[in-house]
Amino acid sequence: MDNRRKAENLIRLIGFLSTRKLNIKEIAKLLEVETRQVKVYLDSLEDIAVSVDEDLNGRLFIFGADKLLQGELETTEKSLIRSTLLLHKPNHPLTAGIVNKLKEELLPLPTLDELTQVRISDNFDKISKAIDHKRRIVLHRYHSPTGKKEHSDRLVEPIAFLDHHRLLKAYEIASRTVKSFKIDRIGEVEITDTPCSKSRKETLKMDPFGFSCEKTEIVKIRLSPLAKDLMSEELPQARPYLTEIKAEWFFIGPICDPKGLGRFILGLPGHTWVIKGDGLQEHLKAAVTKYEF
Which residues span the domain enclosing 263? Predict the structure, then answer.
């Protein structure tokens, strides 16, 4: 028998044993060869590391092929995917949802946290589609603790994801400004049929604190070790602007609106010192006068 015929029969044999269990006689009949030739084929499969098993009735099958065809993952494969995602993409909006789906044992009812992760994953998928197709979206029940309304609907033109996909950069129609929105604060995303008015990827600059503008102000803030650590952890976009000078830490970078950095400074009294930034200093002085104790 020539090599081409043997190769064709080996491919057919793998196909047969991947979808059903057959004994040697049945295989010989399907391949139209003698039973001794089937044994030669089986040896060839073993040589190329294709595992052929036999059940109690003498029927042959390729171990695990049914799961492979159905797209099922083994426990060790699930474990590898979970550990890789948690190590390299812990903050991605889809990570928690995938990890929950890869659990070895599923609870009869989902927990509140699991339902939240499903919502975030679904919203992330819709936003991605809207960005690709340049469509306006409505951020329903967006939670803004510092806004006029704690929960409100925002009509926006999505631009891009920021901060390891935890923030959405978008142009808000009502305020006519580019803002950043936290993905986990969005109740539900609705994709509209209205196209985005124009490409806004380069129209405005955005500072590390979520505000946008056409012209930024460079400020210099000295930070205590605690303030430096908190800024690095809570505001990842600010990390490139953290600088150590003579054993002291500074934030030297751009801001669009003093409110963003101002919130951080006011939340850590005694741990930050404004070295440069007239607009920021004026904002902080005005904000302090509004404090009541």
Answer: 212-288
